[in-house]
Amino acid sequence: MLDSKKVSLGIAPIGWTNDDMPDLGKENTFQQCISEMALAGFKGCEVGSKYPKDAEELKKALDLRGIQVCNQWFSSFLLTKPYEEVEKEFVEQLNFLKALGAKVIGASEQSYSTQGKLDQPIFEGKYVMNDKEWDRLIDGLNRLGKVAKDNGMTLTYHHHMGTVVQTEEEIDRFMRMVDPELVYLLFDSGHLSFAGIDPEPILAKYAKRVKHVHLKDIRTAKVNEARENKWSFLKGVREGVFTVPGDGDVNFAPLFRILEATNYEGWVVVEAEQDPAKANPFEYALKARKYISEKTGL
């Protein structure tokens, strides 16, 4: 069981409206989304494209429902943009999150990413960094991590399908190179599983350096279809590669045990982008909430 005094449960709005494919869930409003999150029993959320851009307005709407922002995705382009430009965007988002009471910001390097390319098979053509690019990425992230730390925030890094940090070897190299006092891991069970990586050994190895967790399930049959039919990442999302914990094939029991054994403190967040027309977001939020409650006591 997880200690509810140390671990908080949230959910991402991407199950209601997809930021990368706005037609998915375009009918679902911001108010509906956060109301259903609260009704399903979640206490936190991440930030979606339909959320108000004004921190005060957003905080008021969330406070009314007893929900707190716990993180927001940050697209870094440290390999392809000047560092100063990336830092400026980072600080703007950092200040927004601080105003909302969040403690974590989740970055993912999007230079050369294939995740948004509709005609690019997700299992082919992934960019592989050379040594110089590795050094540039790590230096940039360490600098951003220092900015975050100086502002009372924590920088976590989101390994992700189609990006420069996807494979087990890339995750290991990343974790060897970053400053462990400045850059932490955002652990995502679904992206590891989609990439063909067993999430349990990864979490066991790096649990003490994990500061944010995405609970994402996968449907293995759909992953196999994605590979065989050369689907893009977004095509896989549309076809149901991802789902909520307890509805797919990821074995969460050992992951919860590791988090408990290592005294994890922070947020665990249900994040399962699907087509809302096929997977009603409120129904699936309730399904996830029930499963996690039964397995963790949260």
From TrEMBL:
Q: Which GO terms describe its molecular function?
A: manganese ion binding; myo-inosose-2 dehydratase activity
Any GO BP annotation:
inositol catabolic process
Kindly list the cofactors needed.
glutathione; Co(2+); Mn(2+)
Tell me which SUPFAM superfamilies the record gives.
Xylose isomerase-like
Stored Gene3D superfamilies: Divalent-metal-dependent TIM barrel enzymes (3.20.20.150)
Q: Which reaction does it catalyse?
A: scyllo-inosose = 3D-3,5/4-trihydroxycyclohexane-1,2-dione + H2O
Task: Give the record's keywords alphabetically.
Answer: Cobalt, Lyase, Manganese
Is Manganese among the key words of this record? yes
UniProt keyword annotation of Translocase present: no
Task: Give the enzyme's EC designation.
Answer: 4.2.1.44
Q: Name one Pfam family in it.
A: AP_endonuc_2
For this chain, the family text in UniProt reads: Belongs to the IolE/MocC family.
Protein name per UniProt: Inosose dehydratase
Recorded source organism is: Butyrivibrio hungatei
